[in-house]
## 1
Amino acid sequence: MLRSIIISTAFHFTIIITGIVSLPFVAKKPIDIPPLVSIELIQITDKTNIPYAPKAKKIIDKIKKEKEKLVSEQAPPKKVKKEKPDAIPLPKQEIEDVKKIEEKKQNPEKDDDSIKQVSEFEKKELFDSNSIAALIDKSKEEFAETMIQNDKITQSEDKSMNLSGLTLNEEDALKAQIFGCWSIPLGLPYNENLLVRVKLKLKPDGSVIKSEILDHARMNKPGQGFYKVLAESALRAIQLCQPLRVPTTGYERWKDMQLNFDASEMLKG
Amino acid sequence: MKKLKILFFSLFFILIQSVSYSLIEVDISRGNLNPLPISVSPLFADKKSNNLLKNDLKIENLGLKIADVIENNLEQTGLFNTLSREAFLQKPDIAHLKPRFEDWALIKSQALITGKITYKDEKLKVEFRLWDVLAGREMLALAFTTVPNNWRRIGHIISDKIYERLTGEKGYFDTRIIYVAEAGPKTQRVKKLAIMDQDGFNTKYLTLGNELVLTPRFNPTNQMVTYLSYFKNLPRVYLLDIETGMQEVVGDFPGMTFAPRFSPDGKKIIMSFAKDGNSDIYTMNLENRIVERITNHPSIDTSPSFSPDGKYITFNSDRSGFQQIYVMKSDGSSVRRISFGRGLYGTPVWSPRGDLIAFTKLHKGKFYIGVMRVDGSGERLLTENYYQEAPSWSPNGRVLIFYRETKTDSEGKGFSAKLWSIDLTGYNERKVETLTDASDPSWSSLLSN
């Protein structure tokens, strides 16, 4: 009997000791895990309720942390460098910069309220000097919010640009080159459709292998003689400009390209 | 097994989609409005034709002369930059057969005109080709046969064809301008009707200068002219056939008639008739001589001009208290004022395109030539000066010709009246050379229609 009690006690003791050694949470206090920084925390919807600078500062700090993670995971480092300011610029500059980026990229989530807010900010600044500080604070928060939205778009846009488009810089360079080469015929009727679509096949150095007018049938239609003149002027511009200023990389992406020449804006003035 | 196949194909298409690229589209909404660089190579003539032309007709270097006419016409438009012949690397005869496009591209030429002249059996054959230098292909090739003395007209016709091919609108070079040629001191001016080519050549006088003549206007369909002159000491509207020199007074009105203009079909004359201090607008059918009153208002209605479709008439009237421009239906109904700017508006002329009305405006002592849309919107003042008026449209509705007078100095000298032209951009303003002082120009329609 005594022997059985001793064996049972020893057995239970062994189990308890083994449990303490192998299961540390039994012996130690639970680990204090720092809360995860969630994007939801940064998405401020009610801008007018956050008029103070400290709050904005917190948000900006959080964004910076979050941004570092996102950049390392997904966004190409070069593009992020361009969009990420080294230091926080003055509120007005910040707003203007953000506005430009939003407009150029045709942000689907573009927040009209934020733009209105910007203009109100500019107006108020002129008339109410006492509330400048508060307004600056608010603008910082707005900036923080738009930065989040902007970052999100940049990442998704990067994906799509890699597959289906040119970056804004690449597109601007190409446009600027062709603007200089395209002599618009002045005798065109300004109340007609003046869009000429030209499909190009390009070499890696930007020279043109083949150019094709997409609405070719329109050239021979009665009363559309001006279209032939317009189409020829577009083809001349391409010839004059080649080799086109295309990106040095990603040939597969832009080897086929469509240029839409539209003279309406210029002729209507 | 079937499910496996579907799964396999789905995966295959997903993979294909992931590596294909959608077509990049770039919108080009701006360009430049710089003149197009163009080379006009002298037209080539063989030795035999050259000798015949020189001996029979005393014309030397006809190929060069025709090229000069073309070059001058294109340069005057402001739309073309004609390149210096000294820079040309290829000879005219070889260039006409097959241009070396690299050579022409090297001098920054985007278009090239070449041609050839043959004189045989007293007939002059002129052929020309228009080349697209950058595309390396021919754009247009035509040949004309005529009597040698018509060589300037051939140059104008070629210019029209080239202009139309490169700009998309009709040219205006094979046209003539009728105007009042003036001579003598300002108080004793002798005024004669004169006609010339649009580039100032081939001037001919149609009247002797015994009577004062004013406001000559071309018939849009043939070579008839209507103008104002004095008959029994009263200003009256006349008709003149340019070819025969026959002239007649239009209608037997008991007062004075003035400001005549043809209807677009050339069958009617529209004019002002003034009696007892009141002036109204009338039309007269030239076939049956029936006179029709169009306006009936106690104010002064004058300077009528038809729209190109003949359905509307624009005129100026002081019925609002100041001289302004109005538009009405051709039967005189639905009169509405279209000018509302500051100053006085007069001499409205409907564009041959139908989209604009040109006018003279007087504001703060200065005269302006301007255009506005037919509803009065989009007023644009093209040129400003001390005194200028009477705009007349080129047949393609792109250029206006008008006259400008200079101030007389304290000794009564320095007065002159000259013709000027300006295009719709307002930038291409040029003096039109005439043998004497000139006023009241009117541009004909294309002669080679």
Note: Chain B has two domains: 36-167, 176-443.
## 2
Amino acid sequence: MGLALLVVIWLITLASTYFFVAKTWWLPVGASAATKFIDGQFALTFILMGIIFLAAQLSLGYFSWRYRERPSAPPVSYSHGNVKLEIIWTVLTTILFVGLNLMGSNVWASERFDPAPPGSVQVEVTGMQFAWYFRYPGPDGKYGATSVKLMDPSAGGEAAVGLNTSDPASKDDVVTGTMYLPVNREVDLSIRSVDVIHSFFVPSLRFKQDAVPGLDIHMHITPTQIGEYEIACAELCGLGHYKIHGMVHVVSQEDFDKWLAAREAEKQ
Amino acid sequence: MATSATTHAHAAPQGFIRKYIFSLDHKVIGIQYFFLALTAVWVGMFLSLLMRLHLYWPNAVLPLVGEIKPETYLSLLTMHGTIMIFFVLTTAPQGGFGNYFLPIQIGAPDMAFPVLNMLSFWTTFVAFVVMLSAFFVTGGAPLHGWTGYPPLSAVQQAGPGEGLGADLWIGSIAIFCIASLMGALNFLTTTLDMRAKGMTLMRMPLTCWSWFITAILGLLAFGVLLSAGILLLMDRNLGTSFYVPLVVVNGQIMGHKGGSPLLWQHLFWFFGHPEVYIAILPGMGVTSQILSTFSRKPIFGYKAMVYAMLAIGFLGFMVWGHHMFMSGMSPYSAFAFSILTMCIGVPSAIKTFNWLGTMLHGRIRFKTPMLYAIGFVSLFVSGGLSGPFLAQPVLDIQLHDTYFVVGHFHLIMGVAAIFGMFAATYYWVPKMFGRMMNEFWGRVHFFITLIGTYAIFMPMHYLGIAGGTRRYSQYTEVAYMQKLMPIHGFMTYAAIITIAAQFIFVINLFWSIFKGPKASDNPWEATTLEWTTATPPPHDNFGGVTPVVHNGPYEYGVPGAARDYVMQTDPAIGAAH
């Protein structure tokens, strides 16, 4: 029985570890400035936790076999523990866990504590059942006023986010269902929701933030690779949660300007 | 301590109803809780089977239930989580085994308040009936998940099931909270006031410590959830705005103004995180008990185990914000929550270290309870080590609300806790029903369940790392998720096999209760007080004798002793511990 346990626990451990190490399923290709740090922290955590995982599971399996009861086994060591070992173990794990944590706080802080630098691309993200809308403030750099009373999700576009068209600042606002971002520019995101909580999740940009009704949450990111990236929703928002989907197109500055100009032209 | 014990004695009841239905005997109530949880776990498991079938075959028309629509899937998800957490993970380890064995292990004739004990069981029963009734009302069960985040849970128009179904769901939880508060008071008083002579706190079995600390957590946590639930009911039905700001749902402006959706999250997780430990602490207690018994060695670091559980309980109240790193909460508070969360890994690591230390140089007897206790340690390690990923806000950017989280909490508070219950069942059924369970089928059940649960929950980590979000009724609408479908397929097949294997367990359980070989008073050669009395124990637990305790709970392999274990009631072995 001890041998059976050893074999089963070791096989489970090694099989589980294999898929982590082989990266059969892994983080999607990262396309934002934060990728390097997040993936690095991820890898470091994996190595450290992986070592503990292997050490604990393999010794659990080994002990089960090695210390099984048999006639030739020596009497048990009558011991109530070892205070010195407890203390060493406690101190080590504390240093490991807290240290790991402090190392990881950098990127988290920079995305949230500092506002985006002036001149960033401004985009407002609005979640609703069940679509994402993106608003660009236009050449004036100012978002026009919106009002809950004007919101009509079934109409889509400007009406869905409740744009107040009598506000002069709203005249050049562009509302789209697909997100375009210029590559290598800092993007100042303003994340909102009109109904329930959604969560704006772009795995390839290593970005996630809940959209909470009543709050306007500012975050900033910098896409670094041209490409098309899928948006998922990471907060249960109702029966259509699985299909609230969108695309981020990261394009060159030139293409971005062209695209925005075309949207402005459509609007006029 | 012992002086008050006699005042709680009550005569053995004669009639069927007073003996088996509205019983005041903690042993009968414990068995009632146990069977309530056993019923609930089959309901919850059946719901999870339907979910897994739907995830891999989204368009399948299933026998009996028909086609599962997205909203149906979300109802299954909500009810699976709620039933499992409240009526299984909270009910069986504490209400079931705790009720039955706390008084016996501390040498008391019953719980401190037998009538309160009966009330808390029947209140829990009512809560369960109310919860199930949500399936049968117009609109069906709610779809807002077990966490019930408003506005989704607070606005009736937000989706099917958010009408009467959601009210019943909240109502059931509120009733459950009341039951748990009554239970917690009883456990605390019993532990503090009813211990037999010589049963000092530091001679209590670690199971008693775990039930005691769990009761403290319950007392502090369920009150908050009760209040939060009442506020949510008011938002839904009385037009208040605790949790709901001005929102437009389905094109209609709702009548709410100025509420904070984050307030619910704070209140809910202030309960919700300690709840995780309410589910797992008794499992830790019983694992310690069984590892020591079947390794024939004293537990490694008894005091460290007690302090670690106290630390887990204490820190458990200061980490709720780690569920909210992506919520829009102040990023400054995320730092505090993150560091405190990492700290809670330390006592958990101490416990693992001590379990391994207990097995080291032991003489391990592989009875089924021991297999499950070893399984518990394995799952606790696997589920625990994904914690330091999720405790880092920066990694939550990628992992929050993905299957990585689902894998994490299922391994540690779901399956590990369930393994604790299996271990407890195989260990204590001989005492509770006077019959041994079948060893062979116990082993078969163990190996299929261990391999099966790893096969279900380990791949969830891969799925989450690749960006697979949770609570999606199907992976058909997002291109990168479609590629992850093979993982869902593997998990679904693993779930079918593992769930099928649970029939082995129930058949073994019921067959053994009625037909198993008779159990002796101390079949495992264990040391704690429940093994000093008759099997099954008489109405007053010790047949008119009040036990007197002279030894610690885990005196195995004592040098110079006549046999390899010394009962707690045996003459003192003289060693200072």
Note: Chain B has one domain: 22-531.
